[in-house]
Hints:
This protein is α+β, with helices and mostly antiparallel strands and 95 residues long. It folds into 2 domains: 3-33, no CATH class; 39-94, no CATH class. The protein has 3 helices and 2 strands, in the order H-E-E-H-H. A two-stranded antiparallel sheet has the order 1-2. A hairpin with a 4-residue loop joins strand 1 and strand 2. Helix 2 (39-62) packs antiparallel against helix 3 (70-94). The longest helix is centred in the C-terminal third of the chain and has 25 residues, at 70-94. It is elongated and about 45 Å long.
Amino acid sequence: MSLCQYLLHVFVGASNYALFYFYSQRSIPIISIGGKLSIMKLAIWVGIFIGGTLGGWVGALMTNGNWFSITSILLSGVGSILGVWAGYRFAKAYL
Length: 95
């Protein structure tokens, strides 16, 4: 049992519910729940994280470093929505 499979077994539970796949052409490790490859889901989540972070960062810059301002929170939401779109487009085009 490899380290990745062990960690997957520890964090997810039983190894028969979560399978560990390797995307053969690019050697990217992908965790798949229930047997379906989730490369699109992974790209979308990465897009949400990056978009939300950048949106919140721009909002904080606009309000002199206040991360909890309305502007920062709204731009974080807008960035997350754009991140969903960008992650989907990236996964469709390159993966």
